[in-house]
Amino acid sequence: MADTSMEEFEALLQESFEMDTPEEGSVVKGKVIAIEAGQAIIDVGYKMEGRVELKEFANPGEAPEIAVGDEVEVYLRAAENARGEAVISREMARREEAWDRLEKAYADDQRVEGAIFGRVKGGFTVDLGGAVAFLPGSQVDVRPVRDAGPLMGLKQPFQILKMDRRRGNIVVSRRAILEESRAEQRAEVIGNLSEGQAVDGVVKNITEYGAFVDLGGVDGLLHVTDMAWRRVNHPSEILSIGETVKVQVIKINKETHRISLGMKQLQEDPWDLVAAKYPLESVHKGRVTNITDYGAFVELEPGVEGLVHVSEMSWTKKNVHPGKIVSTSQEVDVMVLEIDGAKRRVSLGLKQTMRNPWEVFAETHPEGTQVEGEVKNITEFGLFIGLDGDIDGMVHLSDLSWDERGEDAIQNYRKGDMVSAVVSEVDVDKERISLSIKNLGGDKFAEAVGGVKRGSIVTVEVTAIEDGGIEVEYEGMKSFIRRSDLSRDRAEQRPERFNTGDKVDVRVTNVDSKTRRLGLSIKAREIAEEKEAVEQYGSSDSGASLGDILGAALKSGD
């Protein structure tokens, strides 16, 4: 029995020694023995008492919770001061305790609870249950916060970003927690979505290329090309911020959690009906929506656009920018040339809705029709004349004049001159019109020698006497009979035996329509007459003399 008491005594003694010498600078347990004058008097053992301001037992903005008899932990700063009391601090004890707890949470990457209680430069101060941390402004929320008032004093979770016990620094983030919960919320929302599903969303933001739509905690992008089947220049044409829209989930990227949305997918695709609605070669009214270097886009109906290629815009305006032919928003008639359903392309023609001006010209201007036009261009091979229907005709050098060489005749013309010509040929396929100026008023030579052939006998009038022969005229066409062709008889081959104004019968030896000359001969006529007479009246061998025969022939000719 005595042994036991002895052991107990030793244990008590040991305990009293330990209590006797609590270590300064450590946290010790104590008991509240009185509360007076805003302070708590705490017995920390071995007849050591100290005082702690009541406010040290309160969280920022809260009333202190402390009563006589409560056991508390305090920090022993000094065993005795001048008044013989222990210098103790509840706040420092809480800080030490908090630091231990926070370091563990930091190591385990766990959230800690705290309350924002003050504003400092660049951010806020947060009480983490005894330790004060810094909350940078950028870490308060996912988006910049204009007024942090409602957040003050609220108990809420924080994430520790950095800790340095030696310096007493702690940096925390509220944003990291929000992002995490948003990510969880996103994951939950995305988990409930499936591709092809139709959902309602609210337009949050509009950009050049589309709109962001909130699907209840997660945003999806509605691209401008998926808003409507027709061309949309800017999303604001269709949507406004805050509007609720029905969209279809087109694609969900499981890794990035990006969601692509579409509106047009919930409407009927006008392309399903295009082939039936717009048969080839049918003509429709459309509106020009866009003009490029290579053509113009024409909207046939919302969602169905076709391209009029620059080559199909005009019969006559070649190598011209499409903007010179049509303008944006203009209504035009177009013909459907081709439909490619797979590529969703319609090829349209503008010129096909108007008649080919060369065809029209060919119908209204048969060969020989006289036309008038302005000299548009002069080239080394002829003149280009502007005609009705915005088309040109060409007068080749060889068609300028009967009397002059083409190279000389073209010198008489200047750009802008008004000239008359006749149509000599229209080639619709090659889009070529040949004109002639020299044939104006018909081909005089062709008219004059219409019935004249080689061997014909014609009567001509002598217009001039020259040494080498005589100049004669037939139906306004001049010819020259050389001296040697004036008679069979050499003695009669004298030009001076003729007088101007004499009428002479001659034989046509040649009709040259190229040089527009008649070859004429008196000698040839005489030989031909003799030959004819011989055939009619026998040869000279039969006894009749040539004189007799000619005499008889002449008599019968009278």
UniProtKB/TrEMBL annotation:
CDD domains: S1_RPS1_repeat_ec1_hs1, S1_RPS1_repeat_ec2_hs2, S1_RPS1_repeat_ec3, S1_RPS1_repeat_ec6. Keywords: Repeat, Ribonucleoprotein, Ribosomal protein, RNA-binding. GO terms for molecular function: mRNA binding; structural constituent of ribosome. InterPro entries: NA-bd_OB-fold (IPR012340), Ribos_protein_bS1-like (IPR050437), Ribosomal_bS1 (IPR000110), Ribosomal_protein_S1-like (IPR035104), S1_domain (IPR003029). Coiled coil: none annotated. Pfam families: S1. The keyword Ribonucleoprotein applies. Binds mRNA; thus facilitating recognition of the initiation point. It is needed to translate mRNA with a short Shine-Dalgarno (SD) purine-rich sequence. This is 30S ribosomal protein S1. The gene is rpsA.
